[in-house]
Design a protein that fits this description.
It is found in: Cytoplasm; Nucleus. The chain is of the alpha/beta class. Helix content is 37%, strand content 18%. Strands 5-4-1-12-13 form a 5-stranded parallel sheet.
Length: 249
């Protein structure tokens, strides 16, 4: 306990990942991870500032928060940093008109965005929407642009649902990068700007004052550490499933 107290000395704010840390998603809405509802409640009762930092891109922020509240979590929309609302702001600021390759559940976040005559492509975790036809359409839009712009909501490789591991947006992002000879702009973890925006909302500094808790060693832990934060990897979510796979071999 003393060692942990030393490691956490000076921490004023906690960034929490959602998928694989608080709950595992699924077609039925998923289920909270054991002890996570109580852990969030204890953090909220402490002196620490708490913010939820997610790459969730199949649900709007409103839908995600509603789901978590029904599962018993103390959470509000204003406490969540999510890539879709952040991307919407970027599109408005830069006058970009996107071709959207996204899940229907998150389209509402782009309701005020002009999508006519697209001059960029926005890709997110489209799930079943990642068909050949849809990927090829996004490819064609990019190839027809003089200066192609590809914006990806995160670049995760996979995540865990109650049914098992699920391929994430990063694999499809890489396919478009390779085919078009371009590099995507990532809005979401592990982007330093994404972490900084969450920290700004909390009013804490990355160095010594903040800690990130997640199940992804690259997106959560690695991304946070590159920003100067401390980070902890939980043994749930994708970590627990991979650990079980290793144990069987």
């Amino acid at each position: 306990m003393a060692a942990w107290g030393k490691r956490l000395a000076g921490v004023r704010g906690v960034l929490l990942d959602i998928s694989g840390v608080l709950y595992d998603g699924g077609e039925d809405g998923g289920a909270p991870i054991r002890g996570s509802v109580e852990a969030v409640a204890r953090l909220k009762q402490s002196r620490l500032k708490v913010r939820f930092c997610t790459n969730e891109s199949q649900k709007s922020r409103q839908e995600l928060v509603g789901l978590l509240r029904r599962q018993g979590f103390d959470i509000s929309e204003g406490e969540v940093t999510a890539p879709a609302p952040a991307t919407s702001l970027i599109l408005k600021e830069r006058g970009l008109r996107p071709h959207l390759l996204v899940h229907d559940g998150v389209r509402s976040e782009f309701g005020q965005i002009d999508t006519s005559n697209p001059n960029c492509v926005v890709i997110a975790d489209a799930g079943e929407g990642f068909s050949y036809q849809n990927m090829n359409k996004a490819f064609r839009v990019l190839m027809e642009l003089e200066k192609p712009v590809l914006i990806s909501l995160g670049k995760g490789r996979y995540y865990k649902e109650t049914s098992g591991l699920m391929l994430d947006v990063g694999a499809y992002m890489k396919a478009l990068e390779y085919a078009c000879g371009i590099e995507a702009e990532v809005v979401g973890k592990p982007s330093p700007e994404y972490f900084q925006s969450a920290l700004k909302e909390m009013g804490v500094e990355a160095h010594e004052q903040a800690i990130m808790i997640g199940d992804d060693i690259v997106g959560d832990v690695g991304g946070a550490q590159r920003c100067g934060m401390r980070a902890l990897q939980v043994r749930t979510g994708k970590f627990s499933l991979l650990l079980s796979a290793v144990a069987r071999h």
